[in-house]
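Subject: for your reference before the review

Hello V.,

The reviewers asked for a structural picture of the protein, and I figured it would be easier to keep everything in one thread rather than splitting it across files. Below is the amino acid sequence we used in the manuscript, unchanged from the supplementary table.
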Amino acid sequence: MRGATHAPWIAGAVAVALTATACGGGGASGGSGASGIVSASWGDPANPLEPANTNEVQGGKVLDMLFRGLKRYDPKTGEAKDMLAEKIDTTDSTNFAITVKDGWTFSNGEKVTAQSFVDAWNYGAQLKNNQRNAYFFGYIEGYPQVHPDTGEPSAQTMSGLKVTGERTFTVKLSQKFSTWPDTLGYAAFAPLPRSFYDDHDGWLSKPVGNGPYTVDSYAKGSQMSLRTWDGYPGDDKAVNGGVDLRVYTDNNTAYTDLTAGNLDLVDDIPASQLKNVATDLGDRYINTPAGIIQTLAFPFYDKAWNTPNGNKLRTGLSRAINREQITDTIFRKTRTPAKDWTSPVLGVDGGFKDTLCGDACDYNPTEAKKLIAEGGGLPGGQMKLSYNADTGSHKEWVDAVCNSINNALGNDRACVGNPIGTFADFRNQITQSKMPGPFRAGWQMDYPLIQNFLQPLYYTNASSNDGKWSNPEFDKLVNEANAETDTPKAIETFQRAEEVLRDQMGAIPLWYQNGSAGYAPRISNVALNPFSVPVYNEITVG
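And here is what came back from the structure prediction:
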């Protein structure tokens, strides 16, 4: 979950898929764990577990257990509900008055106050602190002064944040953003205790939060043990005794430990086991929609891919891809053909619209060949589809996409896969604008808003706009949608922006990705939230 450069609307996730499963081979000894303790597969976080510095899935799992913010996303519906927010008021969608609920403390006993939030947000935004999620604070007035694109900060704190009482503070944004409060369930906006600043190294070695779990111990490369905090004041208390997150570098090993009774929970079923999982686990296999979409992005910085009729070429390629066949045969229904650029987990009221892409996403090889020709044909006569080769999970579907395109064009060399060694190498070439043609991309939502699927990826110069697509009408509609205070009207305006994206085919939507998990007979009430993360606090043992 990561944006490539600093900008207000990056929303952290780059390509989920893209990356996130650091699973495999350690520490699963001695059965499924102590009584009342859930053992689960995990990967060491890429970054220290600071809320504003964690932008990948493995670290995010821990933060979801350690912290609670002003909002929390309902684990079933994804709706942003008040957690520590008693109320968030605004009359103009620019100035917000926030009241923090009374009675909340951190697990060290320190009271959670308005200052706990304001200090944490200022720390996260400050350039000198090098926090990867700093851009989440980019809409707050004064952000450019604490986090300039070049040079040194001219301020230490954002002018748009002011503490007005022990439990009250105000936020002034740099522009209207009516649904801004709904972003506040993201971990970057979590409060922090004084120990985070007073003994930073000590806090990093054993983070202290205000969520239903505390960190008991952490051995990098082996296991993190979290235990239930008995004094947790929230209404979503953990019903188990804790969670042991065991580090795996290979999710096949984790799956083997699960089926052998040495592990309770695996939340990423390896593709190689999809043919066996129903037999192995029966109704203990979970396959559920998640807020993840996979796409093909284009290098619009390359004039060959950015021509006056290029939209026909790109739409033709979209129509040449047999999504239904690929999701059925390769992904065994753990993916669903995309029909828009968002995700079904948003629901119709949240902006998902399964008719939005329309014919442009329907497989029709005859129309595809015609459109590609009208668009000037493939640049240089051949399309190289780039992907990172280190996970071993992309080659099969990339080859299938190319075969589908080649069959439509009657040319078995029209589309070829272009493997790039590691994910790091792949990302480096993307950020340096060196892609030789289309490349795989994806997005896992940071928060369940249609805005999060559109603005970070396709708005001009947004940090996760890796293909550098730019369209003034799209930008204008996004700005109007953000300023609209009536939610249905805002969503309708976002969908109009999405129609511009469709007509220009700024990226080809491929499929929505499901979350998958499997669990042992000794645990129950296992579910994944809309972010494809286990709802650990609701898992029962025995």
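For the response letter, the relevant points are probably these. Residues 487-504 form the longest helix (18 residues). The longest strand covers residues 285-297.

Happy to draft the paragraph if you're swamped.

O.
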